[in-house]
Amino acid sequence: MVNPVTKLSRNAAEFQARDKKDKKRIVIDGILNNALYILMALFIVYTAFATDNFLSLGSLATLITQVAADLPLALGIAGCIVLTGTDLSAGRVMGLSAAVSGVLLQKTGFTNKMFQNLPEVTIGWILCTLLIVVAIGAVVGIVNGFFVAKFNLHPFIVTLATQLITYGIILWFFGLNGNNGQPISGLSQEYKNAIGGEMFRLGNVAVPWYVLYAIILTGIMWFIWNKTTFGKNMFAVGSNAEAAKVSGVNVFWTTVLVHTLAGIMYGYSGFVEGVRSGSVAANTGMNLECDAIAACVIGGVSFVGGTGKISGIILGVFVLRIIFVALTMLGVNSSSLYIIKGAIILCACALDMRKYLVKK
Question: Distance (Å, rounded) from C-alpha 360 to C-alpha 348?
Answer without folding.
Answer: 19
